[in-house]
Amino acid sequence: MIKVVFVDDHEMVRIGVSSYLSAQPDIEVIGEADNGKKGVELSLSLRPDIILMDLVMKEMDGIEATKQIIEAWPEAKIIIVTSFLDDEKVYPALEAGATSYLLKTSKASEIAGAVRSTFHGQSILEPEVTGKMMMKMRQKDVTHPHDQLTSREMEILMLMAEGKSNQEIADELFIALKTAKTHVSNILSKLEVQDRTQAVIYAFKHSLVK
Fold this sequence. Notes:
210 residues, 2 domains, 5-stranded parallel sheet, 10 helices, 12% strand
């Protein structure tokens, strides 16, 4: 069963989509929340396979909720389900770590399909979102691999340069050891280096640390 948590402040939307998903033989909605703050708490507590996340909600919006979930649990798979296609919503949501992006005009069967595809490692984007991302990629000039690092990954790279182990990094940042290891792995991948030593050499070579 693909376990799902649904975060949306529109009760009727939650009821409709959750009912459809729960009727599927391979999907189970194990939790619902009506705002981003509760969504973060529920997601980190239940650790579902997929999180369906609305964007505009009270107390905490979906972008901030996505950031907090990914910060604490980098492996989380989040599907944005929203009514918005404007740039100030799309880009921050994807940059925060969302895996897929759907509109609420999508059929319930399409959302179910996105849940399955995202669960199996695919990224599902609305065609208009894909077009926007392609344009943004053409316009964005990434001159160095480290431009891809998140602020948290840059922070961890600094600690690596200080000679701190994964456990020491985890203790200093108050995160799980597994999370620290995931961040380090992502850093090595983004910098296109083989090990921690090469990552530190890269950091000094590019004056990221002094």
